[in-house]
Amino acid sequence: MSFLSETLSRVKPSPTIAMTTKAQELKAAGQSVIGLSAGEPDFDTPDHIKDAAIAAIRAGKTKYTAPDGMPELKQAICAKFARENSLSYEPAQISVGTGGKQILYNALMATLNPGDEVIIPAPYWVSYPDMVLLAGGVPKPLTCGPEHGYKLTPAALEAAITPRTKWLIFNSPSNPTGAGYAWDELKALTEVLLRHPHVWIMTDDMYEHLVYDDFTFCTPAEVEPALYPRTLTVNGVSKAYAMTGWRIGYAGGPVALIGAMRKIQSQSTSNPCTISQWASVEALNGSQDFIAANNVAFKRRRDLVVSMLNAAEGIDCPTPEGAFYVYPTIGGCLGKTSKGGKLLATDEDFCNALLDETGVAVVFGAAFGLSPAFRVSYATSDDALKDACSRIGEFCAGLR
């Protein structure tokens, strides 16, 4: 009998973390490495947010809070949902966790029974399927290829729903593709969901504020208010506020669901870091001016990366609407051999050879459920991106 749980055998380590770790090891060994695998802004947390955390420490606000968030933060979240998403929530409908990942995990643990299905549009964030498996559910990936802009179509959603479907996980703008759904595109999806009242919607709106050009963000319960009673609207401060390490995510949803999530959190982690909660109050209530300034840099980086990757042999890189990722396809590179003598049969082969031979770390498409492709995070400096894309271009030019 194995000492480890059988549940653990159903999941795998995060490929993004694995690639980042490998890149760090090569860099520590003296190799010139450019990491484009981690989804983390290179901008520092704004000073007014840091100052709020320091003030909380100095005021002795370092004690336990309620398991799923203190009243001041829940009020700030309610105000944010009303101000930015036209969604009305009361504090009893709000859950605050240690990052968006915990919020998603708690919701799945609180609701899934063996055999329950969760529709996950692919490409997807690598953790979605494994969290479903840990909770005892069945992930149902639904391929959304580049021919549809990496977006879920109403017909595909309709065909995927079964009597066992419990959740649709919806992420816009997307990690890993950056694809964002316009109002009319989302409205068409919500019309399908209205026909299936047993299906709940779990949004991942973490990249809400990272949008470019003329794209306008919207979220399902905002587009179709009739879905509000069965929607968990998830967000957090990690990405737009450059607060990845502060670990604060949150959600608004039905009181019964939030209560069930609170029960799980009270017996696992209990409250998120108190200091991080006070910083997040300031993030949500304070000045938002830095977001637009950061987005100017992100858009410039996006355009740079898209241009340079499209110039590389065998690569096709669409222009995304948001987030800070691109998801180029590499069908023209597979079946070839690198200068280092490695046969590139898969996108994982491509990414491993790219790292070993050029020092550029990206994440292979199979990790996100759709190949052949790879994900680039352009949340780093312009100079690093130029260097990395030049190395990728040279690598592709050397394939035979």
TrEMBL record:
An example Gene Ontology molecular-function term: L-aspartate:2-oxoglutarate aminotransferase activity
Reaction catalysis annotation: L-aspartate + 2-oxoglutarate = oxaloacetate + L-glutamate
The protein's name: Aminotransferase
BP GO annotations: amino acid metabolic process
Gene3D superfamilies: Aspartate Aminotransferase, domain 1, Type I PLP-dependent aspartate aminotransferase-like (Major domain)
Family: Belongs to the class-I pyridoxal-phosphate-dependent aminotransferase family.
EC identifiers of the protein: 2.6.1.-
Source organism: Mangrovicoccus algicola
Subunit architecture: Homodimer.
Domain Aminotransferase class I/classII large: 33-392
This protein's UniProt keywords: Aminotransferase, Pyridoxal phosphate, Transferase
Cofactor(s) recorded in Swiss-Prot or TrEMBL: pyridoxal 5'-phosphate
InterPro entries linked to this entry: Aminotransferase_I/II_large, AspAT/PAT-like, NHTrfase_class1_PyrdxlP-BS, PyrdxlP-dep_Trfase, PyrdxlP-dep_Trfase_major, PyrdxlP-dep_Trfase_small
Keyword NADP set for record: no
Top-level taxon of origin: Bacteria
